[in-house]
Amino acid sequence: MRLVQFTSRSGERKVGVPTSGGASLSPMARSTSVYELATRAIEAGKSLASVVDAEPRDADASYDEIIAEGRLLPALDHPEPNRFWITGTGLTHIGSADARDKMHEIAHGADAEMTDSMKIFRMGLEGGKPAEGEVGVQPEWFFKGLGTSVVAPEADLPMPAFALAGGEEAEIVGLYLIGPDGNPWRLGFALGNEFSDQVTEALNYLYLAHSKLRACSIGPELLVGDLPEDTRGTIRVIRDGTPIWEGEFLSGETNMSHSVRNLEHYHFRYDIFRRPGDLHAYFFGAPLLSCANGVTTQSGDQFEIDVPDFGRPLRNRMVAVPDRAFVVRPL
Questions:
Q1: Residue 155: pLDDT band by 50, 70, 90 thresholds?
Q2: If I label 56, which of 30, 205, 265, 313 is the partner at 20 to 30 A Cα–Cα?
């Protein structure tokens, strides 16, 4: 099952299920958000899929028209955006260390000593998939932002004026709701463009936090259920309607150095991340980066992440935005 959040032409929020063939969405007549559906499922002790199946439906809506008219919403959102935590991890995929190492080589030369990134990656290869009941090695982790930093599929990704670059980071995102008892419930998975400043990151690994404080995009579809072990697709950078680069997207635990369970353990062990009613979007790491393959993006480029297991592709255009002036004043 896959879920799509969107607005009707009259501005009403809707949640729909893609119909067979994917040309239309079957909207729920009563529920207006995945958050609402998931909350009800937890309260009733039922699965999210069973709650969705029991919902009455409105007439089908054209998926293509929703996309063309800019009416898609992120795959998950919170009525109070500041209660939606956006975080992530890196160096979790077989190909991710190579991309990070190329970034470092570009910034510091081919003869630079082994990076901390490569050390963490090797630790993950050796201990990132623990046996059942055991805890593996700790992964890298970063804070990305809150719900206010998430833009909808097909919407513009703003690149700050102070950024040195803006590049796609095509990833799988785990989506979670914290129940009334403080227990995390995984609602499912979605495609995500974590969108970072890899040039800033490459200057010094300690700049990782700065490079991540950017907008991101999640969706358009939330995959309810298990993550496929081996999920594949294509990442593209498109300029003026023509792809200037594309690469193969390889994710799922077959292509990862950490298990999803191990990543979840190290995120949700912190009490602050188990506040009842909060949502979490946890980016699982990028297997491939265009910047590590010689691509320099520019304002107006479109990023496309097309993975059939997740339905329609995630597309966003990067747009440079001007400085927003501020003054820090003593009070």
A1: very high
A2: 313
